[in-house]
Write a structure and sequence with these properties.
Shape of chain B: globular
Order of helices and strands of chain B: HHHHEEEHEEHHHHHHH
Radius of gyration of chain B: 21 Å
CATH topology of the largest domain in chain A: Rossmann fold
Number of strands of chain B: 5
Number of strands of chain A: 10
Oligomer: heterodimer
CATH architecture of the largest domain in chain B: Orthogonal Bundle
Strand order of the largest sheet of chain A: 6-7-8-3-9-10
CATH superfamily of the largest domain in chain A: P-loop containing nucleotide triphosphate hydrolases
Number of helices of chain A: 10
Helix content of chain A: 25-40%
Strand content of chain A: 25-35%
Strand content of chain B: 5-15%
Helix content of chain B: 55-70%
Structural class of chain B: mainly alpha
CATH class of the largest domain in chain A: Alpha Beta
């Protein structure tokens, strides 16, 4: 059995009186890419937020066997969880360089600059714009910056919330290629929330489909791709 | 119309000196607004408290003035952080009304407590820029008697010299030594230059703290995007406390700089200054630090040149001097009407 990077059991989440997640069970094995599919409002974003304790939750979340359901967001980040929120989540008034530096906020080693150079190599567009304010970048560049910023904390688990949203198809393909490459080369575990089911399932090992805050369907990515219900709802077949 | 251009430079210098004080107070407002989008109405009273700490340490305890100011800034920083921790953080940051009401309440409480401890009389303080060189007087008071206004001048040894009515300013200065340079026929007071230098040094320090330190980077990150700041592991609460501490330091700086010009400290000393600082902050854009400085200086200049020089001297209408505060509100109104984000503020565009 593969070791579990992350495991959620009976995860509930609410905003005020509205219950958004109604008991999710899922797991993310070490080194895998897991995708969560679902329509608008199904609770995908909330799932990622709940994992980082950014909303009121009940249930258990364990990371490598340790219970993190009551941990503070900052401590979860320190454990190696990087979250790229929906809508990029860059710091528009900060320069590209400062965005990357703040990504390394939890680190105390002195290899931060080396890491910046490394991500500049992979995302050369960012290096060209290192002194520019993040708010002045294009959507695709901002998404690259958001990902590079998340990677600056040297995560072992990357949470990606609809990275394809609002991007041109060519840029999306390029972005997903980089995700796949990252996963292959560094073994980085990823939990991906997407509406673009085709691309996501191509890259993923395993998938969950959530509807109204509950898991409607789950299985290996290949199997989901061929599932008639999934095809009809998410693959436009 | 009496276009007295000869005295205009005096008004410009004074305006920019007052403006430097407003700029420091406006920075205190903007530092908190940037991080929390809140107007802290207690800014002025926290600053007043800082000026009283300087008074207690310097006058009552006899500490060196600059050391007193430094200690007062540190205490104020602690109080600012404590206020954030105890009275602001427990509330939902998305709901502004309770916190704004709390800062209003704090304003009243601090004012009343200071009034109870020190009463509402003006207490003389030392002028940080009146004491160098040794022959420069360290302040003067004006007393009104039946014969008219008599100026009692104190020199650095503390000796009082009574000046008969009708003595010209130049003669008085001869008696105690000069407190100004003459620049293009106007008086550029040491205090004015000192105020500018103090503001400039504080701005350099702020630029270094925000630009070069990790805490400064975290503060800018929280100001820019609080949620993402949490997601990279920033302790947003502690960072906001840091912002309140910085703001309190700037408030205390403004109060310490203005106290000698007001004749001393008293619990109501910052009331009008807070209004001018608000006008300056609104003019510059409530979330722009550079805008706060330029806005504060501009308000000082408008007040001195437009109201005092043009209104009172040129038009010869004494009631203009009463309109100074109204002018500040008018300025806020005009800015908010035509440029809601101020001259240098960020116009927020939400991309979905």
């Amino acid at each position: 059995m593969t070791e579990m990077m992350l495991k959620a059991e009976d995860l509930h989440a609410r905003y005020g009186a509205v219950e958004v997640l109604r008991g999710l069970d899922f797991e993310v094995p070490d080194g895998n890419v897991v995708v969560i599919l679902g329509a608008n409002g199904a609770g995908k974003t909330t799932t990622l937020r709940a994992l980082c304790n950014m909303c009121t939750t009940t249930g258990t979340v364990t990371m490598e066997g340790d219970d993190i359901s009551r941990a503070k967001t900052a401590d979860i980040v320190r454990r190696g969880v990087a979250h790229v929120p929906q809508g990029r989540g860059t710091f528009p008034e900060l320069s590209v360089m400062d965005n990357l530096k703040i990504g390394a906020y939890t680190r105390k080693d002195n290899e931060v600059n080396a890491d910046v150079d490394r991500w500049f190599e992979i995302f050369p567009r960012l290096e060209e714009r290192r002194g520019q304010l993040a708010g002045s970048l294009s959507g695709g560049e901002q998404q690259m910056l958001a990902v590079a910023r998340a990677l600056m904390c040297r995560p072992r688990l990357l949470l990606l919330d609809e990275p394809s949203l609002g991007l041109a198809p060519l840029i999306i393909e390029d972005l997903f290629e980089r995700f796949a490459q990252l996963n292959k080369e560094t073994g980085l575990t990823m939990l991906l929330v997407e509406q673009n089911a085709n691309l996501a399932l191509d890259m993923a090992d395993y998938g969950y489909v959530i509807e109204s805050g509950e898991i409607a369907l789950h299985g290996p990515a290949e199997q989901l791709k061929n599932d008639p219900a999934v095809q009809e709802a998410y693959l436009g077949a | 119309m009496n276009w007295n251009f000869e005295i205009l430079p005096d008004f410009i210098f004074n305006g920019l000196r007052d403006g430097a004080v407003y700029a420091a107070a406006a920075l205190a407002l903007v530092l908190i607004f940037k991080a929390t989008t809140l107007i802290n109405f207690a800014t002025g009273e926290l600053a007043m408290l800082g000026a009283f700490f300087v008074y207690v340490l310097n006058i009552e305890q006899g500490l060196w003035l600059w050391l007193s100011i430094a200690i007062a800034m540190l205490i104020s920083a602690g109080i600012g952080a404590a206020v954030e921790r105890a009275l602001v953080r427990p509330f939902d940051p998305a709901d502004h009304l309770p916190v704004v009401l709390i800062t209003l309440g704090l304003f009243l409480i601090i004012n009343a407590v200071a009034g109870d401890i020190w009463n509402y009389q003006v207490r003389r303080v030392n002028d940080p820029f009146g004491q160098f060189p040794s022959w420069v007087p360290n302040g003067s008071e004006l007393k009104t008697s039946s014969e008219g206004t008599i100026a009692c001048l104190t020199n650095s040894e503390g000796q009082l010299a009574e000046v008969a009515p009708g003595t010209s300013g130049a003669e008085m200065c001869e008696m105690v030594g000069r407190t100004f340079f003459e620049v293009i026929g106007a008086r550029l007071h040491y205090r004015t230059i000192g105020t500018w230098i103090a503001l400039a040094l504080a701005l350099i320090a702020l630029a270094i703290i925000l630009g070069k330190t990790k805490a400064g980077l975290a503060f800018r990150a929280v100001s820019s995007n609080t949620e993402s700041a949490r997601l990279v592991g920033v302790n947003t609460g502690r960072t906001l406390g840091f912002g309140w501490a910085l703001a309190s330091v700037f408030g205390t700086l403004s109060a310490a700089l203005v106290a000698p010009a007001l004749g001393g400290v008293n619990p109501n000393m910052m009331l009008t200054i807070l209004i001018y600082a608000l006008a300056g902050a609104a003019l510059g854009g409530l979330d722009s630090l550079g805008g706060a400085v330029i806005g504060g200086l501009a308000v000082g200049l408008v007040k001195s040149v437009l109201v005092s020089w043009f209104g009172v001297v040129v038009l010869g209408q004494a009631y203009f001097s009463i309109l100074q505060l109204a002018m500040a509100f008018l300025l806020i109104l005009i800015v908010l009407l035509f440029r809601p984000a101020g001259l240098f503020g960020t116009r927020r565009i939400e991309r979905v």
